[in-house]
Every structure is written in structure tokens, then in C-alpha cells.
Amino acid sequence: MRKIILIMLVGISIFTQGCTMVTTESVPSERVVEVDGAEKDTLYVRANNWMVDAFNNADSVVQFTDKESGTISGRYLLGTVSNASEYGPARRAYATIKVRVKDGASKITVTPESFTYAKGNIYTLYTEEDAKRDVDALLFSFETAMKKSEDDEW
């Protein structure tokens, strides 16, 4: 019996060795995209279309839109930190996205929500580095979408 307990303790210590719990900071990133000659309504439609394309997961939702003020906001699923198991439900990382548009310019703010993960754990699927990379990709994607003119002929 002692051997079994000793083997289990050694196995657990090897499994958890090098794992550190890390809690990310909620630091907003923003980008202003200037589009000369573009009207507010045109930029609003582009931003709305971008959100529809970017929010391609059922866990990502547009929460508020107001065309008159040129505001769109939503909650975006960045990634799954860990899958559900017998120890608990799946943990996910989200970000709040706010878009404001006016004549000639648009502004996006992406604020990742704070999340905790086990650094060095083989079961951790999403880390702070992944979140930073994905936020940068969202900002670049938004800028590209806002500068792209639509083809009105169909």
C-alpha cells in the first residue's frame, strides 16, 4: 500500500512540476483607422459586416448596436483555456470589443478579460501570449476591413 501511495505522489509531483498559475491583465488595445472621404454610415456598415465575419463562433455575440451614435459592441471568444473535465467546466478567454465610427474614421478597442491558466501544464490550451497574438490579429483584420471599399455591383 505504501508503494502505491509513494508512486502516486511521485507521479503527481512530476506532473505538476514546472506548472505556475498565471493570471492575465485586462489591458485594452485600440486602433484608430482613418478612411478619407468615407461617411459615417458607410463605415458603420463596414464595421458591422466585420463583426459578423469575425464573430464566427456561437460564443461570440454582438451585444449592442446604435447606428445613430455609430457604436457597436460585443463579447468575443478568444479561445478555450482548458476543456471540461471531471474537475470542472471548460474555461474560456473572452474580450470585449467596442467600435465607434464617425465621418472619415473609426476606432476599435479590444479589452481581453482577465483569465487564469497553468503555465507549463500540458492541458493548458490558451495562454496570455495566444491572447495577445489574437488581439493583434483582430486589430489588423478590423483595419483591413475598414479600408476595403465594397463592390456595389453584383
TrEMBL record:
Signal peptide positions on this chain: 1-18
InterPro entries according to UniProt: DUF4468
Domain of life: Bacteria
Gene3D superfamilies: 3.30.530.80
Pfam families membership: DUF4468
Keywords: Signal
Record has Cell cycle as a keyword: no
Domain annotation DUF4468: ranges: 31-111
Protein name (database record): DUF4468 domain-containing protein
